[in-house]
## 1
Amino acid sequence: GSSLEPEERSMEPPAVPEEEEEEGAVPLSVAPGPVGCQLFGYVGIEAVLDQMKIKTMKTGFEFNIMVVGQSGLGKSTMVNTLFKSKVSRKSSQPGQEERIPKTVQLQSITHVIEEKGVKMKLTVTDTPGFGDQINNENCWDPIIKYINEQYERYLREEILITRKRKIPDTRVHGCVYFVPPTGHWLRPLDLEFMRRLSKIVNVVPVIAKADTLTLEERAEFKQRIQEDLKTHAISVYPQEDFDQDPEDTALNDRIREKIPFAVVGADQEHQVNGKRVLGRKTKWGIIEVENPAHCEFPLLRDLLIRSHLQDLKDITHNVHYESYRVRRLNESNRPG
């Protein structure tokens, strides 16, 4: 029964006749072991964490924050309170008369802050003139232009043939948007700004000067803002799409329930029960800025600095900058 068709030749090597395996013998093809492989003794892999820590302490790192809102909402005071130092635009230019500019101007101040040997190059970008005009049409354009300019600057450095070992990072990692404490709904200006900016930068909305609202008004206002954001499909930081594991989701869900944070800023210390605390003095008592019972400033500080600072930088690089880079490279590759 020979077939007329040519015989198909297999590319695989001829099979070796299987020998009877001895009892307890190890098979030739060993499947990869489990992820948590048991070590026979101490290797020292964990020391890489110490190496990373030492390297970061030597080189330091950059963090760029932008504050946006109408004048008089306490943006400069809030930045000073966050970093417990005079880092705002107003603090570094004392004695100058504050005038509302006719157009939105962006002003950046850079400081090097050091704490326990860790250096941070902090850049604070203020937006005087935003929302202060009679006609606020397209007042977000200079801000969008500035953010994209920083992406462009980083991209130009990145595509050079000879690149710097460390590219200077001026990209905005977080934008804190100050909502006026009206107690009603978000204004069209607030909605339009966050809708446009949340696509290119991490936007963290806060209720400014929350001590002007009662606790009931504050809770109601916060709920209305959350409804507004959901209705208009505005995704503020931390975005649900970028949660990496169930642990991240659980933590960020708790934060999302509290956003926008109702904050109070103060850069003066007062004596309370024998302790010096940051707060605002009123006739009926002192509003302690770092007391969670008084305001949600500690939640904002933890989000921006203690728990999510690296995440803000990662999302800026991997999501917002990446989408800008793809768009720009597609534009440059298009035939004329």
## 2
Amino acid sequence: MLVWFHPSGVFRLPLRYSTCKFLGVPPGRGSCPLTGPLPFDLIYTDYHGLQQMKQHMGLSLRKHKCHIRVIDTFGTEPAYNHEEYATLHGYRTNWGYWNLHGQQYMTMFPHTPDNSFMGFVAEELNETERMFIQRNKVNNMAVVYGKDAGMWKGKENFLAVLHHYMEIHGTVYYETQRPPEVPAFVKNHGLLPQQELQQLLRKAKLFIGFGFPYEGPAPLEAIANGCIFLQPKFNPPHSSLNHEFFRGKPTSRKVSSQHPYAEEYIGRPHVITIDFNNSEEFNAAIREIMKINVEPFLPYEYTCEGMLERVHAYIQNQ
């Protein structure tokens, strides 16, 4: 039996109630042992859920650490995971030092052998949907990957270049007026429900990233809907040594682009990675994109079948 813990609780129950009910935790703050054996074999949670379990289970958590699988977006390297080593060598962060086996951390993308690749499921199109997309693609339509207005700051120059070739659409949140960071020539739809976003991606030719967020699911969803993903290359690569976002994360991994998995494992023609500061290279990439046609593509590991196969293998063998 498996149980999924989330910061908001198990099966959407408040954590305190669910902890008592499913873990057999007596009243108090983890000062007493559990009242009985755990009624399940594996616990899937994240770092926030792990912290809350520690608060409620106390020392009892040590006995049951082998049951835990941590859904970990960016990965946890051994130096950060081992509490004593992390403390002595300056690797201790707010996220690591749990002393788990490295493969108990399960990442969204397969970027490190230290952890396990859990992944996720992206929507897979049937043949009718694929044919519809190929018939209705708008060759000069681009959608920007950036829901927060702050992501658009400083991007005016290459957006102006892109505007010479394509109609640009955005999905930026705003309350009463257009966010000032979004140029007037951008058609901003505001935050869209998932179904409406899918429809927008099915029409667009290009999905363009600004460099943030890192390694999200949206590029795979766009590629699965027949878009070409254009993303910036980082030189030097981003890491905890040179970029604020990664400071405090339990990894020293160097990220070479906004989405290294898409760059390395998918690549052209579905994914094009360039230096956005090189105007000649940027112009050439846009012209190339307008000339080529791609079919919707979803790597097997992100299909429903691929995900179930992977989870089954972990449950049976790990």
## 3
Amino acid sequence: QQRVVLMDPSEDPDDILQANRSREKTFVFDMVFDHRATQEEVYVSTTKSLIEGVISGYNATIFAYGPTGTGKTYTILGTDCEPGIYIRILEDLFKALEATAEEMDYTVSISYLEIYNEVIRDLLNPSSGFLDLREDSRGSIQIAGITEVSTTNAQEIMQLLTKGNKQRTQGPTAANKTSSRSHAVLQVTVTQKSRRQAIGEEMRIGKLFMVDLAGSERAAQTQNRGKRMKEGAHINRSLLALGNCINALSEKGGSRAQFVNFRDSKLTRLLKDSLGGNSRTVMIAHISPASTSFEESRMTSIYACRAKNIKTQV
């Protein structure tokens, strides 16, 4: 349930000289799923508990991480008959909000964007070109000119997302025919206001980010050349920046003297509030059972292990 053991496929069990240098690794996580796990199981054990926090005004972030072809987009978006985390969490979010509707007025707005080669594109309105990240007077990061859609219906959102997902930059690589070549970020903002007219009116704002990261595989695996190679370098750069932020946030000793470099990439800058601070972060790491991707699986597990050690100072 909680342990992953990676066996090195190139190892010979009878080789006595290599016995002490085995590359077999064991990782322990909060939850481990094998190939039999259903979408529902994954959702209930990883994501369902975040809804309460978002309604109370905390932020939450869910990452789908791993090499290409291991099922990140499937986990997050799913198919029509096996919906993924997106639709399940939104349905439960609206149910939970309706339960508080007598005391609270709420609005839910969503935006859906992709970060491709370090530029931001709006997936709900692709014709708007590349967008800029700006900081507003309160210090929160905004995207200038992004389309925000307010809705009270999970099905409506799902149609928008399916439409948006068709606009995503995909490209064939040697590892996967429809590899996502960009990071897709769904941002759900829940704003609540009490119906009782009290003095010092307070608003609760909770943000939920769901990030479908681009594949973290090595260039050798995808046999990319030219444009694809450059694109891969950009993907790896933003994943490295994310890794650096996670490292700094999970440093031993928990001293805040450690500088967290959120400005290294657009992705980390956008997620600044939802990595540190009042936030809960879930990383769903995907690995392939194939022996050819042993290296990728090892690196993915190490990366996810670091994310497990994030210490947030609320």
